[in-house]
Amino acid sequence: MQAYLEFEKQVADLEGKIRELQSMGDDDSTVNLDDDISRLKTKSQQALSDLYKKLNPWQKTQVARHPDRPHFKDYALALIDEFQPLAGDRGFAEDHAIQTGIGRFRGRSIAVIGHEKGNDTQSRLKHNFGMARPEGYRKAVRIMHLAERFGIPVLSLVDTAGAYPGIGAEERGQAEAIARSTEACLNLKVPMISLIIGEGGSGGAIAIAAASRVYMLEHAIYSVISPEGAASILWRDATRAQEAATSMKITAQDLKQLGIIDGIVEEPIGGAHRDSQAAFIAAGDMIEKGLAEFDGMEPDAILNARRKKFLAIGRNL
Fold it and tell me: What local confidence, expressed as pLDDT, does residue 317 receive?
């Protein structure tokens, strides 16, 4: 059954009535409720469309965190053919929060890196809710260097609340691992496309998102800290997260206007979780468009273009 967010009560009520009528029709074949069901479906779809056209930043945060929203494995399965997972950082261990591999995207070889949150209790624990440890970022660096060696582009799918802040992670050099991964992104001489599919939180996100092109799904968020974290620091009150979300400019629309990201992938009405196949197609089209911009470019030109892109952020030209 569809999981509804707190601001979707009107839609939930309408779709509940639709299910009731459908159940009544199934129980009594002599009753024809098709017209009523059709009318309610139209009303529900219109309500959903109107609602999602005017989401505020906090509501977008809730959509980005929706438990049914497609994750890395869903995108990899839908977009990457012949996907071959690669594991381990060759130094300490395998980190399950960051998944990597190679495969083919619409006919071209590609290396893939991304956060996996998991979709049930067991898988969320296995993947540490998408919060990577240092070995995850060192694995990402290994895959980036591998891609550069063979001259194939890199695709990163970002979906994390942030890097794991545990004692063990800090003892193993979490800050340095994030910095090294960010550096590896910036120094690649092959194209790198990053797509923020859910949450893009803090250094845990930028470590695999300092790319040639950075795109966001329409209802994704991208921020230096979570709204709850910002509210706790600024006002010592995590309940003011909604106020923080509005002030921080974390939505795709705000970030596109500020020049932080390069494009927005339109989501199906009601979010990617309501029609994942449509989301996959739209994401694939944007990724293909981004990669095509670098066809025929020399390695040094690709590197310099990425550096200029990031140096230009925040400048008054």
Answer: 46
pLDDT value of residue 33 = 65
Closest alpha carbon to 190 in 220, 155, 151: 151
Beta strands in the chain (DSSP E): 81-86, 98-105, 108-115, 154-160, 192-201, 213-217, 221-223, 263-265
In 3D, which of 171, 155, 167 has the Cα closest to residue 208? 155
Do residues 133 and 95 lie in contact, with contact meaning Cβ atoms separated by under 8 Å?
Answer: yes
Q: Alpha-carbon distance 46 to 150, whole Å?
A: 49
The C-alpha atoms of residue 49 and residue 267 are separated, in whole angstroms, by 11
User: Which has the closest alpha carbon to 184: 151, 148, 218, 217?
Assistant: 148
pLDDT of residue 31: 58
Pairing of strands 192-201, 154-160: parallel
CATH superfamily of 61-312: 2-enoyl-CoA Hydratase; Chain A, domain 1 (3.90.226.10)
pLDDT at residue number 316: 56
Task: Determine the pLDDT at residue 138.
Answer: 95
pLDDT, averaged in runs of 10, over the chain (317 residues):
79 80 65 72 84 91 92 95 92 92 95 94 92 95 96 96 92 94 96 96 92 96 90 88 90 92 94 93 96 94 94 74
Q: How far, in Å, are 77, 122, 176, 182 from residue 235 at the CA level?
A: 42, 35, 29, 30
- Which residue, 190, 79, 77, 179, is CA-closest to 143? 190
C-alpha dihedral (207, 63, 53, 193), degrees to nearest 10: 20
Q: Which amino acid is at 6?
A: E
Site of tokens 């409720």: 33
Q: Where are the domains of the chain?
A: 6-54, 61-312
Tokens 């795709």 locate to 252
Q: What does the block give as tokens for 246?
A: 């509005």
> Rounded to whole angstroms, how far apart are CA atoms 36 and 15?
12
